[in-house]
């Protein structure tokens, strides 16, 4: 199955959703995304969003890391897109849920990392999770960002930068899509706050 996973195209689905406890923002716009990295580019990536702009998703082809060669051991994607709230609210990402598939032998490991920051502002929030071998199967983890970085309180357009890395180490390992739905998924929860 691991051999099939390496050959298959990987779709990375990044879903950004407003937390259920917060009212959905009105008038928020989410701009077009730019993509850069070994796991994504303009031609193999797609952006979709909900009609009320409370959800944005990304389909990225190529986020598979494998120990088959030195170059294949790491895949990355940097995504940038704008968020604009005419109401002047601040927004932060509080947690990330990541699911996918891993085939990791003894003495090997797979790692994924998600970082985000707002352009022109200080502070970067990071989560990282390692899966030690032996491990074969799907995984799904939800992690809180220990440091929460918020956008500015203004009517200005905020550019959100999200960076994702998948890497493997050791004699034999693969990390990528979940065999059940052929997607490596990252869901990011937004917290909207009114500015005083």
What does this entry look like structurally?
Pfam families: DUF4360. The protein has 196 residues and is mainly β. It has one helix at 2-7, and strands at residues 11-18, 29-30, 34-36, 45-49, 55-61, 65-66, 74-84, 90-104, 109-118, 125-132, 135-144, 158-169, 173-176, 183-193. Residues 1-22 have low confidence and may be disordered. Strands 1, 4, 5, 6, 8, 11, 13 and 14 form an 8-stranded mixed β-sheet that branches. Strands 2, 3, 7, 9, 10 and 12 form a 6-stranded antiparallel β-sheet that branches. The protein has 1 helix and 14 strands. The protein has a single domain, classed as Jelly Rolls. The N and C termini lie far apart (54 Å).
Features:
Jelly Rolls, eight-stranded mixed beta sheet, 14 strands, 196 residues, disordered N terminus, mainly beta
Summarize it.
This protein is 3% helix and 55% strand.
Tell me the layout of helices and strands.
Elements: H1 2-7, E1 11-18, E2 29-30, E3 34-36, E4 45-49, E5 55-61, E6 65-66, E7 74-84, E8 90-104, E9 109-118, E10 125-132, E11 135-144, E12 158-169, E13 173-176, E14 183-193
Parallel strand pairs: 1-14
Antiparallel strand pairs: 1-5, 2-7, 3-7, 4-5, 6-13, 7-12, 8-11, 8-13, 8-14, 9-10, 9-12
């Amino acid at each position: 199955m691991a051999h099939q996973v390496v050959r298959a195209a990987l779709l990375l689905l990044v879903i950004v959703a407003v937390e259920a406890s917060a009212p959905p923002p009105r008038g928020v716009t989410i701009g077009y995304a730019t993509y850069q990295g070994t796991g994504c580019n303009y031609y193999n990536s797609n952006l979709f969003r909900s009609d009320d702009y409370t959800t944005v998703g990304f389909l990225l082809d190529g986020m598979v890391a494998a120990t088959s060669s030195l170059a294949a051991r790491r895949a990355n994607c940097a995504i940038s897109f704008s968020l604009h709230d005419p109401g002047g609210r601040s927004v932060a990402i509080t947690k990330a849920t990541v699911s996918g598939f891993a085939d990791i032998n003894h003495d090997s490991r797979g790692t994924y990392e998600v970082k985000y920051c707002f352009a022109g502002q200080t502070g970067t929030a990071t989560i990282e999770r390692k899966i030690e071998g032996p491990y074969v199967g799907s995984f799904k983890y939800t992690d809180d960002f220990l440091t929460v970085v918020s956008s500015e309180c203004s009517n200005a357009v905020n550019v959100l930068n999200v960076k994702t890395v998948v890497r493997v180490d050791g004699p034999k390992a693969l990390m990528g899509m979940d065999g059940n739905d052929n997607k490596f998924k990252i869901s990011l929860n937004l917290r909207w706050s009114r500015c005083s």
